[in-house]
Amino acid sequence: MELNGADIVVRCLADEGVEHVFGYPGGAVLYIYDAIFKQDKFQHILVRHEQAAVHAADAYSRASNKVGVCIVTSGPGATNAVTGIATAYMDSIPLVIISGQVPTAAIGEDAFQECDTVGITRPCVKHNFLVRDVKDLAETMRRAFYIARTGRPGPVLVDIPKDITVAPCKYVPPKGEISMRSYAPVNKGHQGQIKKAVQMLLAAERPMIYTGGGVILSDASAELRKLADQLGAPITNTLMGLGATPGSDRRFLGMPGMHGTYEANMAMQHCDVLLAIGARFDDRVIGNPKHFAQNARKIIHIDIDPSSISKRVRVDVPIVGNVKDVLQDLSAQYEVARADTKPASIEKWWQQVEAWRERACLKYAPSDEVIKPQFVVEKLWEVTGGNAFVTSDVGQHQMWAAQYYRFEQPRRWINSGGLGTMGVGLPYAMGVQMANPGADVAVITGEASIQMNIQELSTCHQYHLTPKIVCLNNRFLGMVRQWQQIDYGSRYSESYMDSLPDFVKVAEAYGHVGLRIERPADVEPALREAFKKHKDRLVFLDFITDRTENVWPMVKAGRGLTEMLLGSEDL
Amino acid sequence: MKHVISVLMENEPGALSRVVGLFSARGYNIETLTVAPTEDATLSRLTVVTVGSDEVIEQITKHLNRLVDVVKVVDLTEGAHIERELMLIKVRAVGKERDEVKRMADIFRGRIIDVTDKSYTIELTGDQDKIQAFIGALDRSAIMETVRTGVSGIGRGERILKL
């Protein structure tokens, strides 16, 4: 069957089972959009800015474990997409980005809307391709999907010059799996290494489980829960790993790190065997690596990416493999070994952990007069039964969401952990809702972050997307202000937001519902109104919160994990 | 410590950029870099000389392996291997200098490959120490121009980097 390049792109997407594509048309992708017009296999969602298309596809993937897909045009379309691509790359999210390019003959001539997309995106994609011949197009598309979803997942960009999209070519539907001599991810862990890990865990008197985004990405929450039951050890999930362990589980110590709980950080530092699963010991999680290494402990590290192992912290037992496969083997081996060797008692360790927990580091001073941001998140958790999909932007509100919304399930907490991209919240909610129609979706955001992609209120209206936007409005760039207060002598340089819009009117102007909430007593009723009465509408809840509330606990940048500030009295 | 790392990769446009980009993005050193297709035209062989602690070298090899275009990576320095670099050097050669330079080239087993009445161009092959020693042995002010290929390396004996 002879098709043109654009038809082949559309056919490849259909053959991959793609149901939703986020994008924005432009000159270089007009043939592709013409082919989209003529098909009915997938729905195209027209965003208002290319950055949002990538974020939406990214969240679609995070919430569904499918590969997210977006289409942008050449030049500014591609450069607008870069922030979204880098965001997905840092969090290892499988995406396929199709970008238009100027015709092959015009490449390098500074043509209208030309940029070196492959060059610009090279450092922030797992891989990218420039298609130079229509005969390579179908195979390239297949490879893009294969590379994106296998191994350590990540975004893959396919740059397609306009002439390729109109060139005729025979289309042969795919047969069998892709095989590439230069790319063969390892899934199974080394059995000998797993055995070593089992022996270490059996002998551990102070074991600690620390898990990250890798558990979510490999859909290994069930395996993790089983292993946690076997070991009985305390467990912490990083910002990217929240939901892997139910928030209601007694063994769950909350999140570790810069704004982690006292008990999680103390346990990370003082354990004798640390089992790290799909986590990468990053600077926001372990603080200063030298300080972290001061305490002698054995570290077992399971990760699919060898380069994540022994990067910041030396580990004793590296296990390279897919988290899900490795956890299955680890559990099975542990079960067998436990029959021969009685695990060491961890009772004393738990007494210590409980003593740390009694510090109740997340307690905050409630108020009848001013809305505490933590209070809003707690009420949101209550009103949604802890089961909503929650996206967030980046800043203080993100940390409060992570601390106070206790996730019971994986893939419910969607945020930009690695790159820390302000403006992801609303487009993330769009992607989540396209993947889960009918589910409750909340965006926890701030008055600064929300304005970085506020144009997407229009997209939400067009596609009847109904997230509830929980804006914790403190009239400050809260996290910047907090750092300035603590480290820069309270000189609030450019962290105050003047001339804010009336968000209620903004929401209404875009055809949505807007509510302003100024008193603590109105918080819960407003949330109920949003999720019940306005279930089928997008609601912008503008909570006027305590202006100078800080996120506690806090480990200052570069400091040791246990050098925590627990509140303003520690300043 | 100095390491010689050999990389077998797909002979695709952009593959070299990925390697170079990796080094610059992660702050690793490149002392020399050489790349050319192998006997199998679909594969390129790249040799990079870099300096770093054991931890850094381990990360470099892991990150190189992570690149989708990279087929195989070996740190030649881990075992017996041979390093060679080619240098072309143009040296002023007037009057009695002519004999002296010729003699020096002979001692280092260099070959004079171009001659004018004022200069010799010498081709010299060897490891980096030898090339450095030759440059050191010449009168600094007599050196008009040098060009070096960077190090190529290969394992000794049965040590083979192949698909």
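qc> Chain A touches chain B at residues 118-119, 122-123, 126-128, 130, 147, 180-183, 305-307, 309-311 (CB under 8 Å).
qc> done
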